[in-house]
Amino acid sequence: MASAAITLAAEAPKLSSANTGFMLICSALVLLMTPGLAFFYGGMVRVKSTLNMLMMSFISIGIVTILWVLYGFSLAFGSSNGFIGYNSDWLGMSNVGLTELWDGYTIPIFVFMVFQMMFAVITPALISGAIADRVKFSAWALFVALWLTVVYVPVAHWVWGADGWAFKLGVIDFAGGTAVHINAGAGALGVILVIGKRVGFKRDPMRPHSLPLVMLGCGLLWFGWFGFNAGSWLGNDDGVGALMFVNTQVATAAAMLAWLAYEKIRHGAFTTLGAASGAVAGLVAITPSGGAVSPLGAIAVGAIAGVGCAAAVGLKYRFNIDDSLDVVGVHMVGGILGSLLIGFFATGKGQSAATGVFYGDHSFTQLWKQFAGVGAVLGYSLVASAVLAFLIDKTIGMRVTEDEEVAGIDQAEHAETAYDFSGAGGGIGTSALAAPETKKVDA
Amino acid sequence: MKLITAVVKPHRLDEIKEALQAFGVHGLTVTEASGYGRQRGHTEVYRGAEYTVDLVPKIRIEVLAEDDDSEQLIDVIVKAARTGKIGDGKVWSLPVETAVRVRTGERGPDAL
């Protein structure tokens, strides 16, 4: 995150109402991304697991919010030896003054904490798309809590904590290409390597049940992403946040067009799902890079990510890995591309003076730093997430039974059905409420 | 009596309804159906994965008719349903033993 503390003068920063208000709005925008993600994923699954897909995102809002305020923020952003932080005052935000400023910035710690909370909420939710249709809800809830603690918190500390080793090394990750997207994508890969494929993968058709829902979710993600990206500078005093805002829009447009063009050439059609996927690929790739590149660089980053991710999503069939909704193909690949492209396209005129291969003295230094950040996050998240999934699988079990999966996880895990389109009310026989003496109702 | 069943393209429904009304048919039943004939299906692409969708949406229309009217009625439906392209569907008839109007209890041709 923001490397350059306000450089205007030697005097300590004062609380800025403008920046504080802006950051609170950005926090709400980032929160909106998680319901957006729920719809983006929810439309892509089959009817019988729509609710489960929505719920996997929503439960993350619940669990992560609580854990973040209790200890997550303290461990992620407290001072440290470089690997995991700690600040006892921030446990439960119990000893923090309302106007106490986040060090070096013009916003209260409370504001920074809640902004970062929303990042922590969406990151595990991103993983859920890879494991659609087949994971016990209780196992997922436990996974979210453990993953936040064991994977997200340390990685966020490495990349964004003032004492984090990657931050100190000079790895550029403006808003979460490594800490959010590579982290979630590699985590997803680790989990699916443990839990395996859906019943009928590659045999049964598993086409999206509602592309309009996918487009709605994509729109909410795109909108919320401005808070995610532009907000990550924590203020607007030097224009870098605005550069990020512009680049977010430009790269996303370029990626959507690039994915569509790739698809038209390879598969003969401009698909709706391709437009939505391309947009998200662009958003992912510009997330780490948007503060370092120019708008022309953002076009390049977006276009490369659009084509790169469009090509990557087909690989799961070749490797026979059921990354159900292409979390690895879009978030891990997009995150890697965005993070590494900084090493080529950084102009030195944005968030820092570091330049990529195409600018300044054409040095590869920044590129190697980016490789270090990407490799460390990818490797750690992949292994740690696989271990967590393995442990949960050996204790309470990760998957629903095959019968439950085939019949639909919504009924098995949530006792609900997503849609009732029949005029007479969906074939429900008698109300349990109407006959309390004959039927015992638990709930 | 005969039961005439037509499985046709959904967008021909209005034409068929109008033609049947003009012919003097006072009631029919329509259900959404899916299926395939010689037409087979079509191909859809989702993130590069191609799916053959072989069950195509159709409309199934059922009409009860008196024996004397049935052949003519079939012609009316066929004419209204035809686009000349593959996938126009099929129409057939079966003998019906009895029919009852639920409200009045009338039986046989009186129930139509």
UniProtKB/TrEMBL annotation, chain B:
Name the UniProt record assigns to this protein: Nitrogen regulatory protein P-II
A Gene Ontology molecular function term of the record: enzyme regulator activity
Classification via Pfam families: P-II
Modified residues (O-UMP-tyrosine): Y51
Domain of life: Bacteria
Subunit structure: Homotrimer.
GO cellular component, one term: cytosol
Keywords, ordered alphabetically: Nucleotide-binding, Phosphoprotein, Transcription, Transcription regulation
InterPro entries assigned: N-reg_PII, N-reg_PII-like_a/b, N-reg_PII/ATP_PRibTrfase_C, N-reg_PII_urydylation_site
Example GO BP: regulation of nitrogen utilization
